Amino acid sequence: MKLFESSALMHVAAVKSLLSALRQLSHQCMSAAVSSFGPPSSQKSGSICFSLERMLSILVNNMHRVGPLWNEVICHFIELTDSSNQHVRTIALNAMDQSISAVLGSNQVQEYASSKLQGACNDVQTENIELRSLECAVISPLKVLYSSAQNIDVRAGSLKILLHVLERHGEKLHYSWPNILELLRSVANAAEKDLITLGFQNLRVIMNDGLLTVPADSNGNELDEEGLSDSNALMSLEHIVLRTLN
What we know:
Elements: H1 2-5, H2 12-33, H3 42-61, H4 66-81, H5 86-104, H6 107-118, H7 124-148, H8 152-169, H9 177-187, H10 193-209, H11 216-225, H12 230-245
Helix pairs in contact: 2-3, 2-4, 3-4, 3-5, 4-5, 4-7, 5-8, 7-8, 7-9, 8-10, 9-12, 10-12
């Protein structure tokens, strides 16, 4: 355990190498797992969980430089959601949920959100670029997962993770609303009622908590540029409600 805790003191390249080794171990166990029916053996499942837990631990201990490490971690979680073994997919979705929540709940993001509200940013342009890059990198995998996943449980999982994000960290989001609303509008075209219900739950949180009323300088411009607005979101909500009732 000390090895993973001390990763915060290691050079980024060394941390990436450690993540790569854990990723390789997970791949090997996944390959063995998908060749069998039902849940993987306790040993294989334990090894996959070990790899993902250690990757998450490394991420948390390196939150001050999460940007260079994020893709190495999240891309592997996405890879695992493509497994033919449902148990492996569930493990991966849980790991994604925890990692996204860890980043959005980190001091780095919270302090920026607080300073933004107080108008206390020393270098607004630099902070904006850094936060935009990090926030989009954290949220965009959910849209990718929903649009590309072949398994209904994975698509549902991406919406459940988004719901957790909105409930726990919605007020911190700044640049991701175009992607979020585009994802939720696409749910209105889903054939599966479970997805429709999850889409409605997400939009209900957005509307009830007033998350779309954040200051114009934080999301208004981005929404306008993408052709998104409160009225479009309401239309999506209406479509989802109608499809749920039918």
